[in-house]
Design goal:
With 427 residues, the chain is an alpha/beta fold. 21% of the residues lie in helices and 30% in strands. Strands 1, 2, 3, 4, 5, 6 and 19 form a seven-stranded mixed β-sheet that branches. Strands 8-15-9-10-11 form a five-stranded parallel β-sheet.
Amino acid sequence: MGGHVHHPRAHRLGGRRPMTDHFDVAIVGAGHAGAQAAILLRQSGFAGSVALIGDEAEPPYERPPLSKEYLAGEKPFERLLIRPVKFWEERAVTLRGGARVEAVEPEAHSLSLATGTLGYGTLIWAAGGRPRPLPCPGADLAGVHYVRSRADVDRMMLELPAARRVVIVGGGYIGLEAAAVLTKLGKPVTLIEALDRVLARVAGAELSRFFEAEHRARGVDVRLETKVVAIEGEAGRATGVRLADGTLVPGEMVVVGIGILPNVEPLISAGAAGGDGVMVDSQCRTNLPDVFAIGDCARHANRFAGGAEIRLESVQNANDQAAVAVKTLLGQPAAYDALPWFWSNQYDLRLQTAGLCAGHDATILRGDPADRAFSLVYCREGRVIAIDAVNVTRDYVQGRKLIGDGGRADLTRLADPAIAIKDCVLA
């Protein structure tokens, strides 16, 4: 799978719309992964034509601040741009905004868009995901919001003044970050989580209980093991959330954060392997000719997940997979083997995570959660596999290095927060 260019023959397209353009590299998805791939192609001296195709009108921008600084009104949209608009022009990267790819024809090396057909030499699929919709009656009422795009958050901000109470469905990072911002903005917030703790899929129980207590201390009504059966409304607008036990939680704004669905249907329809994401090898190649997939939508075997096939929804993964795909495309040796890391800001708490804690058999606490600065170190069979650091950047940085280097440490010394993590490493 090199960077060589295919010129699809017209007769292969049959009765399709005319070929409107041809690009040496077409990148579908203008989020972190797609933007980074385009940037790295030019930084690496790639001189061929490059198109960055996104379904939003905006140029590429950062997603994590949407549920934090952007929603809080602390950061204007211009400061979310991954690069200034002129950057893309100066580097001859064609931005195709407001364009959705409807189908991929791998043999013809072409994409079907609403506006016509686009040919490619190499395709980098970085289409990310869309919010998982709430599967209940009333989910389509006005006042029900998801946090995935600038337009989503702009709509929320527009409606916020008229919303007396907010109900958040989902106790993952998006839900908790939105709860923190909306509480700071003076809104009474009820947070509903179907499982028995928040962050259940990504963190250990101790961290879940800490964040639950923090949110409750600031007035958030956190309800665990609680299921939503309907959104109630009047005149087409949400007025509250009906729970499985019959309770109605009033709220003029409902924010849903229950995960994403990867945008891979056109690739799967074209014969790509996958399901919840499209399968890629260690070079980020799909099983389709000259097609890579990177970012939230790419399913891959991950060493830090014990070799399990996973999707990673993080900026780190988007950037690291972009680098591997671009190097491979340019004929340079590369393999994806990056340590996962992530962060979340809630109130004055900065959570920094490295590694993946799934399958841990022991947890070591460094420091006291009551001090609101502590770390949780996760081990499996005596090795450190992940760390969650709350307001302790030093632990995070040293823990990240320890995990990347193989995770061997003196676990007794590790439990003493007075001893630096780097001084607990075993040779």
